[in-house]
Amino acid sequence: MRELGRDTEGVKLAPRVVVGRVSLYLRQLEAFQRQGHTTISSSQLGAPLAIKNAQVRKDLACFGQFGHPGVGYRIDDLTTALRQALGIDRDWPLAVVGLGNLGRALLGYRGFRSRRFKIVAIFDNDPGKLGQKYEGLTVEPLESLRRSAANHKIHLGLLCVPAEAAQKVADQMVLAGISGILNFAPVPLTVAPHVNVVNVDLSVQLENLAYKVLKTQEGIVARGSLPAVLSDR
Description:
Layout: H1 16-34, E1 39-40, H2 42-46, H3 53-61, E2 73-74, H4 75-86, E3 92-97, H5 101-107, H6 111-114, E4 117-123, E5 133-134, E6 137-140, H7 145-152, E7 156-159, H8 163-175, E8 180-183, E9 196-199, H9 202-223
Parallel strand pairs: 3-4, 3-7, 4-6, 7-8, 8-9
Antiparallel strand pairs: 1-2, 5-6
Helix pairs in contact: 1-4
């Protein structure tokens, strides 16, 4: 399995956690733009995200030198630079592979468009779904993946199939020229070194959240100040 954040083909990648924070910085910068601000300090940028100014500066330094002495960061310039660094200064055609409940939900997600991601093709191997239209797109068989990926210049795919089929389908995606896979199947994938995989396991995220809530509640109990709403467990 190859996760975003490791070197690939000799290219140094910023750590995944840093890329995630930079995405948050970009959203915060866009919010400040809408409010009419033109400059911002690292403290102002990090405060709404509960990130210290030193960490903000360190993260941004992974992508270049953007600050100006006595001024801070020029919001327009930094926004443009971060969009370029993240690769969202261009359009990214997407393929959805697997049209179950999750696949259909992703088809209807409008947030992709604002970040210049556009779903242009959908694939499934269920004969009952082939030829059907969803969000203006016709469901194609997996056998058409290579041809369609070439026609639409697709390099990113959303893998939404059951765990037992994930590796085989991922292999087909790689053969089709897709080099970035957002994997929603709860199983690790083995892919070539030039292919980047980001795993999205909702159960793992909920388990992490449950752990944090449990430990927070235990800490409150230990201090003897459990809120009434949580006291009758």
